[in-house]
């Protein structure tokens, strides 16, 4: 039950109707006994600045940011942490003392699944891909290639990453010897790349009904050793966001149960 004391957190994006984040975060707030509520906030691109300023005006504790705003929202943050600044991407806003602090938890939700020395192919070049790529470099992967449906976007991300890790980032496209594939696109109904020889697959995409994406199905049936689906990624990034807003440990098991089975 919402009251005059309820702290609000939102999800800024377009679209947001199918997101499982409200279900997951509200379950987490209830489990911790917090009088907080998480609400979807559909925001068109021309209204993004007004929406961010509105969080402050309306007393929101913060927000998540999803497609297509993860890079554009940087311009409307008062401060960025080191992760968001290096990645050029924000998925978590914290409102404190009238100021908007930008952070990113996308990369943290993926980097745990790779090991130093892995050769990674990253699919996608949007805001989530930027955050994931930076985290993968920090995790010590031996090589990182980027493939996207728009070659100019892939080349732009590669150029950005080379300023951070020139010895790790390879050309756009798929090189030989890939051991890890990370899908940071919204593609759910097709397998965007061959998985031959791939040991680990991480898919950021998920279906709201919990069914596996085509990529996850192909990885599981093809014998990949580690398959991380989008629900598990959602839980991990959401738990990190929860802790930034509240300052307390996230009830990860509750959040995982709220969105359905993970890997």
CATH architecture of the largest domain: 3-Layer(aba) Sandwich
The coarse overall form would be globular
Radius of gyration: 18 Å
Count of DSSP strands: 11
Spans with pLDDT under 50 lasting ≥5 residues? none
Number of helices: 9
CATH superfamily of the largest domain: Leucine Dehydrogenase, chain A, domain 1
In which order are the strands of the major sheet placed? 2-1-3-5-6-4
Percent range for β-strand residues = 15-25%
Q: Specify the CATH class of the largest domain.
A: Alpha Beta
Describe this protein's structure.
By secondary structure, this protein is α/β, with parallel strands linked by helices. The chain has two domains: 7-104 and 233-259, Rossmann fold (3-Layer(aba) Sandwich), CATH 3.40.50; 108-228, NAD(P)-binding Rossmann-like Domain (Rossmann fold, 3-Layer(aba) Sandwich), CATH 3.40.50.720. The protein has helices at 21-31, 48-57, 82-87, 108-111, 127-138, 151-162, 214-222, 230-246, 252-259; strands spanning 7-13, 36-42, 62-65, 79-80, 92-96, 99-103, 119-123, 143-147, 180-183, 200-203, 226-228. It has a six-stranded mixed β-sheet, sandwiched between helices. Helix 1 (21-31) packs across helix 8, helix 1 packs antiparallel against helix 9 (252-259) and helix 8 (230-246) packs across helix 9 (252-259). The two termini are 33 Å apart. The mean pLDDT is 94.
């Amino acid at each position: 039950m919402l009251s005059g004391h309820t702290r609000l957190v939102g999800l800024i994006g377009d679209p947001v109707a199918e997101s499982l984040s409200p279900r997951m975060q509200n379950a987490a707030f209830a489990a911790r006994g917090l009088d907080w509520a998480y609400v979807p906030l559909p925001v068109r691109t021309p209204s993004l600045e007004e929406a961010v300023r509105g969080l402050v005006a309306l007393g929101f504790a913060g927000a998540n940011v999803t497609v297509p705003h993860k890079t554009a929202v940087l311009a409307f943050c008062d401060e960025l942490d080191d992760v968001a600044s290096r990645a050029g991407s924000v998925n978590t806003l914290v409102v404190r003392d009238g100021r908007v602090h930008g952070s990113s938890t996308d990369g943290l939700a993926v980097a745990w699944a790779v090991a130093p020395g892995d050769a990674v192919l990253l699919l996608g070049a949007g805001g989530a891909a930027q955050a994931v790529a930076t985290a993968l470099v920090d995790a010590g992967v031996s090589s990182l290639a980027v493939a996207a449906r728009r070659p100019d976007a892939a080349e732009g991300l590669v150029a950005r990453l080379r300023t951070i890790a020139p010895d790790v980032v390879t050309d756009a496209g798929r090189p030989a010897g890939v051991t890890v594939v990370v899908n940071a696109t919204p593609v759910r109904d097709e397998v965007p790349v061959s998985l031959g020889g791939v040991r680990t697959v991480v898919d950021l995409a998920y279906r709201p009904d919990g069914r596996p994406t085509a990529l996850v199905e192909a990885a599981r049936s093809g014998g990949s050793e580690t398959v991380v689906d989008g629900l598990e990624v959602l839980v991990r990034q959401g738990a990190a966001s929860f802790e930034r807003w509240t300052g307390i440990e996230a009830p990860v098991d509750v959040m995982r149960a709220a969105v359905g089975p993970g890997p």
